[in-house]
Amino acid sequence: MNIIIIGAGSIGGAIASQMIETGHDVKIVARNKRFIQLQRQGMLFKKILVNPFAEVKTRHLKVDVIPELLPDIPADIIILTVQRQHLDALLPSLEAHPCPRIVCMFNYAGDFTDLRQRFGERLFWAFPAMLAGFDADTGISHHFILPRVLSFLQITTIGSIQPGASRQTTASKQILVDLFNQAGIPSKGVDQMEAWLKTHSALMLPLIAYGVHKLKMNQSFTLSWSDSNIIASAIGECFQLLHQNNITLTPFNLQLLDMFVPKTLMQLSLFILFRFKIVHAMLEGHADHASGEVVQLYSDFSRLADQNNISLDMLKQLCDANAILEYKTT
Known about the structure:
Elements: E1 2-6, H1 10-22, E2 25-29, H2 32-41, E3 43-47, E4 59-61, E5 64-66, E6 77-80, H3 87-96, E7 102-104, H4 113-119, E8 123-127, E9 130-135, E10 140-145, E11 156-160, H5 167-182, E12 187-189, H6 193-217, H7 225-244, H8 252-260, H9 263-273, H10 277-287, H11 291-307, H12 313-318, H13 321-326
Helix pairs in contact: 6-7, 6-10, 6-11, 7-9
């Protein structure tokens, strides 16, 4: 297949390397320093294996890198691995391109009405179940793909944001699921992708906001008991907001978390989890480039809360927009 990937950071690099190794014709849209890196040295990456004793070597792939998306470049699939705040600038070129399947890969909790009108059944969302990082200085990315055996935690999830499931949408979704599975990225399709995205954002926004703040202050990611309480309370506020808007929490494991795990137990779980360095590394890898994402997601939830006359006091405490915006947004 002809695949165009817009964004060549940690997730974009991981997806590109898997697709190229599977034999697909992949073009990567990159800018500035990253464009020059890929032109000069190709893609350098490390694939982290399940076996902790296995040697991880830096691997190299030749890549076809282009500076922008043009309508005459053939594509069966376009995958966006950019940050949410860059979406608006890309909309004109995406609309002009005839590609039948456009796949977004970033958190989104806003209104989908405009996107549905622009793209119809062409637009899909996929959320990758992987840990990935990228060193901008060396150009080396690394990624670990969650194996299918851990699908009870999360698996790469793909779905349409259309309210109905036409035969065309169902067929396109299956093509995407098969593509990712064949590329060594265990995946599944879902019908309620909008609910899935908003549930995931409700869980992650308080954690990411905490991470961005700690990076800005150059402080440890270890949670105090008070921090654990604020994050657990903010997650509860976001879940309650979704309930108020008749959004069913998805997937099922997060329904169970909401139904059967009281706030105190969630607080304790967070307090314990953030004693482990691997959790710190995961959060730091995301938060290091997520300040713009936090501002956008906080705006989405705040708008929804205002429409329902609901206060998000704990979330607001975490997502102090002025403090977040002072941190780097590149």
